[in-house]
User: Fold Putative Zn-dependent protease from Allocoleopsis franciscana PCC 7113.
Amino acid sequence: MTRQRLRRHRDSSWRRLLLLGVAIAASLWLILSQLQPLKAQSVTIRSDEAIGVKPGNPEYRLKTADLSSASVSLPMPQIHPLPTPLAQWQDVTDAGDYFSEIKLTPVDYLVWSQFPVKIFVDQPKDPNESSASNQRFQKWVDAVLQAVGEWNTYLPLQVVTQREGADILILRDRPPVQASLDRETGKFNIPRARSAQTRYEFYLRQTDKAAQAILSQRLTIQLSPHQTDHYTLATARHELGHALGIWGHSPLETDIMYFSQVRYSPQISVRDINTLKRIYQQPTRVGWPLAAQTRGEE
Ligand SMILES: [Zn+2]
Assistant:
């Protein structure tokens, strides 16, 4: 090889290397950009088929389909009075909110209107037993109760010992891993295990005060037993945010409702509460009596 040819050869190798670099960068970007929604999905709230069973009447099932086709007479959307702590909440720092990220459920915003909201937290079967697994369970309970205590500043909450009649259940369960079929490849996508999941269901609640049954929500949080106490607390904070009405995610990682788990877990932020307050100022169908009785019940 002459020196010139060698140089040309070297030039083309460099060009090839450069091209290869660009190609790698492009595919990396493609992978990363696709990772983003995937990552979000792994902690995204589920819009489950919401099925509510009226207590004491297992035949009466309220399905999402019923709700959207209005085969039951749903209450008209109305605004509930703000609970006192939210009414008193003033943001002087003008931190803004992420209200635009909040998704509507089939009955609009998931606002609570009966306070205190009753929360059941899973308990070890035999609390007096001092085994290592029981101690781990107790630490899980402590972390969850701390998160409940933090939210209690903004919405009146009450921890109850009975599962029945609770508005929010916090269970020490590993959330199910949902595989989905990729139609193009014919392969199953198995997402990484979730650490938590929150889902809602609706039911009709009879009260002494109202003649008509009240359209009500019940939330179930499944929170993994396999996290450090630090992450259990952070996850409980986040999932409780969903259960209390923040049905969406913040784009900022300084908010607890950021869509992904971060190493540094923030405290409930001003923006979180600004968002919560705006949600509670919206009209919703939940928490109001049905417009007319659909069944001839006394
Ligand atoms: Zn979430």
In short: The pocket of zinc ion is lined by residues 43, 45, 238, 242, 249 (CB under 6 Å). Strands lie at 52-53, 61-62, 117-121, 157-160, 168-171, 180-181, 188-189, 196-205, 214-223.
